[in-house]
Design brief:
The structure holds two protein chains of two kinds. By secondary structure, chain A is of the alpha+beta class. Chain A has nine helices and seven strands. Classes of the chains: A alpha+beta, B alpha/beta.
């Protein structure tokens, strides 16, 4: 039996959040953490609440704090996270909890929107695609794959402190994805919007984002590139 | 009953996947008040899982490539019940739609010339089947769906589309003239029920792969649009046609793209034999998906399957080398390591045919307008209702979809729906207001669920449904066994209608949503079952052991299922493209 400790909070009936213990029969299988949640919801307590969709690590719905580390429940096997037979699942830290494991991601999405995460090109579009060399396209690798799961931003102390002013690792990764795109012509405008003490420079290089990213991306490196661009722009 | 809050839009799109967001983008760009209702944040939609690419004759790999060749392949792939006018539209408009996506920023992989990279996919040919294998599938590595979905979301942000994220549409609202005038929807976060009123309601609700126990589909693919349509008296077309993707990861069901075989991978049985050479001597592993899936099942049934139970085969990729795998198929390497515990650089991936795609759906014309048939058997438009993407059956896939055509379908027809609605709004749409009884009818299912005290819980019934479908309506089907399945469904229906909700809370109640989804799954499953039993021939994905031949005399037609009577009727296939000659049915070999 697997001992599972779940963060519970129902705004309609609970004054405060609490942890609830479940003893779950996994049949001895090395399930994914999401499978355990599905088992609990189906067989133990239907009111347990969480988000899930693709169950294969590409939609970014089920970012959770699993045994103290942010990750995607659907691609985290028990064998990787459970030490001493205990699984503790909490919502992503630093965002308001709506219910149980579901957090309000409005602030996270607002920071994403702030970087104007869409291609801007002042010249008229050609009749076919805009040409881009394989080398230019390779600049986007490690950037475009972000799934907006928020594991990174909600593990970042700078984001916890200033979620309204520091863009956070996920948003900045996207900002650099467009700065790095040979087809985008809005570099100056993008940099101007980021050039303040908070948007970028609140990153202190703690690298929690890099450690938790379930897609193996490196927001800190992207932020470093933006810093360089901002500093070059100032000189 | 208390009065529901009403919010009004010119166009409301139900579903925030690729089709919905492409339709929304078109409408939002035209300046009309546009809203998307999505039960998940849009980038969590199942389009995100599409891997290999989007097929289209953009003439990058082959400068001589021709959309007519793509059309020929698609008609042949459909086993001749794809509508040729719709296929012609999709294949000819496709390049424009792809270039638009690129201009929006979609990070396609590139060729040395800087053009969009295209890879070979199954069922593709040059020169109407005479010129060998084509490479026509435009790719962003093996994350094309992710790249496409995020690009569309980003451009909807740019164009200020209104999103109602984590809202669930419960049922259609029809006025006294039978026109669709919006939906009743639940805001999941608060539990509030709202009438979302619209002059044009677009269903882009995606598929329903969760009717099967083993599926590549996301948890959210529960046939919500099919359920709502069938309850509202809208017929369903070609529901017997379900695609089983050859390469779902054994045990997990997660998808491994056909692009693996496009890049040179191939299937082997327990003897290490490349068995597709026997079943499809020319196209081999790149034959149509239905052909490959059946061949795999035959290998397994004849004792040449892999593993201790001999119940799967293997996909060999290691010969392609680490460089190709890491650059062209990085997502597959990741998925394989996570879900099959196999590193494809070193070992083959265990795979098995897995439910993947619903070729059937709400019948529409090329403008996305939902259709029904009148008493005389003629098509008639259902005012106010549109459908595009997987929930629609326009029909470009007929009895078997070609790989890479689903993303093209959703982009082209999402766009076409938006274009048509924009024009219709400009010309003026006058629909009678819904009255209180109309709104009560649309809320009846939800109200009954909220009030019911007795019944069975959702999870065991969902599993029971999925097992019935898996066992009785799989890759190979027989009449007697299907009739047993239909009988089981008949007893399950009353129980599903009376599903009980233990958790009555309002805030983010996912149990309530799961109950409503189960009823949608059931409607989709029952339609599938009844039509599969009725079509007594084998065509495309529908393979009958008791009727092994294609029967063009009786079944070169669409099936139409009517939910209210549970009757099946036939509807003509369109054989009259506008600019090319008809592709006549012939024997389908690869």
């Amino acid at each position: 039996m697997l001992q599972v400790s779940l963060y519970r909070y129902n705004p309609e009936s609970d004054d405060a959040p609490h942890m609830e213990e479940f003893s779950v029969d996994t049949g001895g299988k090395d399930l994914m953490v999401l499978d355990v949640l599905e088992l609990i919801k189906a067989d133990y307590d239907g009111s347990v609440t969480y988000r899930r969709s693709c169950r294969e690590g590409v939609c970014g719905s089920d970012g959770l704090n699993i045994n103290g580390k942010n990750g995607l429940a659907c691609i985290t096997p028990l064998s990787e996270t459970v030490k001493g037979g205990k699984l503790v699942i909490r919502p992503l830290p630093g965002l308001p909890v709506i219910r149980d494991l579901v957090v309000d991601m409005s602030l996270f999405y607002a920071q994403y929107e702030k970087v104007q995460p869409y291609l801007q090109n002042a010249s008229p579009a050609p009749a076919i695609e805009r040409l881009q060399s394989p080398e230019e396209r390779a600049q986007l690798d490690g950037l475009y794959e972000c799934i907006l799961c928020a594991c990174c931003s909600t593990s970042c102390p700078s984001f916890w402190w200033n979620p309204d002013r520091f863009i956070g690792p996920a948003g900045l990764l996207q900002a650099y994805r467009f700065l790095a795109d040979s087809r985008d012509t809005a570099t100056e405008g993008r940099l101007a919007k980021l050039d303040d003490p908070f948007s970028v420079f609140r990153c202190h290089g703690i690298q929690n984002c890099v450690n938790v990213c379930p897609k193996g991306l490196n927001p800190t490196k992207a932020i470093g590139h933006i810093r360089t661009m901002l500093l070059n722009r100032a000189t | 009953m208390s009065v529901m809050r009403t919010i009004s839009f010119d166009g409301v799109i139900v579903g925030g996947g690729g089709a919905g967001m492409r339709a929304a983008l078109q409408l939002a760009q035209s300046g009309y008040k546009t809203a998307v209702i999505s039960k998940v944040f849009p980038t969590r939609s199942h389009t995100v899982s599409a891997q290999g690419g989007i097929t289209c004759a953009i003439a990058s790999d082959d400068p001589q490539d021709d959309w007519r060749w793509h059309m020929y392949d698609t008609v042949k792939g459909s086993d001749y019940i794809g509508d040729q006018e719709a296929i012609e539209y999709m294949c000819s408009v496709g390049p424009e739609a792809i270039f638009e996506l690129e201009h929006m920023g979609l990070p396609f992989s590139r060729t040395e010339e800087g053009r969009i990279y295209q890879r070979p996919f199954g069922g593709q040919s040059k020169n109407y089947g005479e010129g060998g294998q084509a490479a026509r599938t435009c790719a962003a590595a093996d994350r094309t769906g992710h790249a496409l979905l995020h690009t569309l979301y980003q451009n909807n942000i740019k164009n200020e589309t209104v999103f109602f994220n984590e809202w669930f549409a419960v049922d259609l609202v029809k006025n006294q003239d039978g026109a669709v005038v919006g939906v009743v929807a639940i805001c999941i976060e608060t539990g509030e029920t709202v009438y979302v009123k619209s002059k044009a309601t677009v269903f882009a609700t995606g598929g329903a792969g969760r009717i099967y126990a083993s599926t590549t589909n996301a948890h959210i693919n529960t046939g919500d649009g099919m359920g709502m349509a069938l309850r509202a008296g809208v017929p369903a077309q070609d529901m017997e046609m379900w695609q089983f993707h050859p390469t779902g990861i054994y045990g997990a069901g997660t998808l491994v793209t056909e692009g693996c075989r496009g890049e040179g991978g191939y299937l082997v049985n327990k003897d290490g034999e490349r068995f597709m050479e026997r079943y499809a001597p020319n196209a081999k592993d790149l034959a149509g998906r239905d052909v490959v899936a059946r061949s795999m099942v035959l290998e397994i049934l004849e004792g040449r399957g892999c593993g201790p139970n001999g119940d799967h085969v293997k996909l060999k990729l290691d010969h392609l080398g680490e460089d190709v795998l890491e650059s062209r198929l990085p997502g597959i390497c990741e998925l394989s390591r996570t879900f099959a515990h196999v590193d494809p650089v070193k070992e083959p991936i265990p795979v098995v045919p897995t439910c993947h795609y619903m070729m059937g759906g709400i019948p529409t014309n090329v403008h996305g307008q939902a259709l029904t048939v009148d008493a005389a058997g003629n098509d008639s438009v259902i005012p106010g209702l549109y459908a595009c993407g997987e929930v629609a059956c326009v029909s470009v896939h007929g009895a078997n979809r070609l790989g890479g055509n689903s993303l093209l379908d959703l982009v082209v027809f999402g766009r076409a729906s938006g274009l048509f609605i924009e024009k219709a709004l400009r010309d003026g749409i006058e629909l009678r207001e819904a009255g209180q009884t109309d709104l009560e009818a649309a809320s009846a299912r939800l109200n009954a669920l909220n009030e019911r005290e007795q019944g069975e819980p959702v999870a065991p019934m969902r599993q029971e449904l999925q097992e019935i479908m898996q066992n009785h309506f799989g890759v190979f089907r027989t009449g007697e066994f299907m009739r047993e399945g239909i009988a089981k469904l008949a007893t399950l229906r009353g129980r599903v209608e009376n599903v009980v909700l233990a958790d009555r809370s309002s805030a983010f109640n996912t149990s309530r949503i799961e109950c409503l989804e189960l009823q949608n799954l059931f409607e989709t499953a029952e339609a599938t079952a009844i039509v599969a039993e009725a079509r007594d021939e084998s065509r495309g994905a529908h393979a009958r052991e008791d009727f092994t031949e294609r029967d063009d005399e009786n079944w070169l037609c669409h099936s139409l299922y009517h939910g209210d009577t549970k009757q099946v009727s036939k509807r003509s296939v369109n054989f009259t493209p506008r600019t090319v000659d008809t592709f006549q049915p012939k024997a389908r070999t690869y």
